Amino acid sequence: MHIAVLAGDGIGQEIMTEALRALDALGLDDLRLDHADVGGVAYRKHGRPLPEETLELAKTADAILFGAVGDPELDGLRRELRVESAVLGLRKELQLFANLRPAKAFAGLEDLSALKPEVAGAIDLLILRELTGDVYFGEKGQRTTEAGRREGYDVMAYDEDEVSRIAHVAFRAAQGRRKKLCSVDKANVLQTSVLWRKVVEEVAAEYPDVELSHMYVDNAAMQLVRNPGQFDVVLTGNIFGDILSDQASMCVGSIGLLASASLGTSTRGLYEPIHGSAPDIAGQGIANPSAMILSAAMMLRHSFGMETEATRLEAAVAQVLEQGVLGQDLGGSASTSEIGDAVVAQLAS
Ligand code: NAI
Ligand code: MG
């Protein structure tokens, strides 16, 4: 098991330390960890947020554990040197088109959700967001109209292959869960969505055991807050998925709890918490490492097929939360390393 460890900026370093301790506590065989710089740390040392040697390591490792990038002192850099471009570069270079973001209620935390406890307690969903298309990668620019007004534009486009490959990932994910798939689009207005819906319907024919439904994105945003328990797998495009997944995280309780996997056609994946580098709390030892540890669990499952170990790690994090070992993001006072200690102790018990 060869893992590229890219801790990055801000709290990335602190939470990565705890994730590696938790992996170590699992007592895995043949674990090889190679560290490399990414983000602001890399820019300061090498003049680039995604140095060649980091990309090379990411391409040759079996999986990538990624902390976060983001450094407010470097915000003035031009677009291609911005430290956030490192994560986009990795996704693009490694063709990681499927972003899996599970959101599940944790026992004992229902009162901390922005939703009513009984509504929040029912959350157990997986958002599958397409990562390499949509308005983020279509033709874009700024121009002057004939009337002399400034205009910005971003073209939304998906071709059928891009839709079908993510749809297959979503149907297979649903088969491993409660066999319900809700595809979210805006087919009442957008031609991109009309094609999206048609292709998802075509792919559905290969998965007769999965119950497929379609929902407009505005309704989906409403339903996520009204009754999130109705969702199993939610399949959607890049921009809708970006927004809906942040919304789903707050329904669970804290952004410090949500992990993600970015996958392509091989088993090589990139695993990272959904939050950023949290410069406001960096260096204080108070970040919640749960999302990072849960990202390591997703790595064990998706890149190495180690379902038992992944489940053990997830259960340890859930038990620690249930015991009330909470960081400041959840109204507690446990430090980053105290939460890590508790997870390691749980794994040893
Ligand atoms: P953020 O997710 O870093 O922080 C948002 C808020 O949540 C902050 O108040 C932070 O203290 C808190 N928070 C985040 N993670 C936490 C944790 N594990 N434990 C406790 N509290 C936590 O988002 P923000 O502030 O918008 O962005 C900060 C930097 O991170 C920016 O430079 C941004 O571009 C970058 N970023 C990087 C991402 C990545 O590496 N994939 C994703 C999102 C943002
Ligand atoms: Mg986002």
Indicate the low-confidence ranges by residue numbers.
none
Taking the sheet with the most strands, its summary is: 10 strands, mixed
Query: What kind of assembly state do the chains in view correspond to?
Result: single chain
Order of strands, main sheet, comes to 2-1-3-12-11-4-5-10-8-9
CATH architecture group name of the largest domain: 3-Layer(aba) Sandwich
- Rg is 20 Å
- Distinct ligands, ions and cofactors found in the model: 1,4-dihydronicotinamide adenine dinucleotide, magnesium ion
User: CATH topology of the largest domain, anyone?
Assistant: Isopropylmalate Dehydrogenase
What's the N-to-C terminus distance? Answer: 25 Å
What is the number of domains?
Answer: 2
What proportion of the residues is helical, as a percent range? 40-55%
Supply the CATH superfamily name of the largest domain: Isopropylmalate Dehydrogenase
SS summary, helix count: 12
Order of helices and strands: EHEHHEHEHEEEHEHEHEHEEHHH
Tally of DSSP β-strands: 12
Calculate the mean pLDDT score and round it. 95
Assigned CATH class of the largest domain = Alpha Beta
* Share of residues in strands: 15-25%
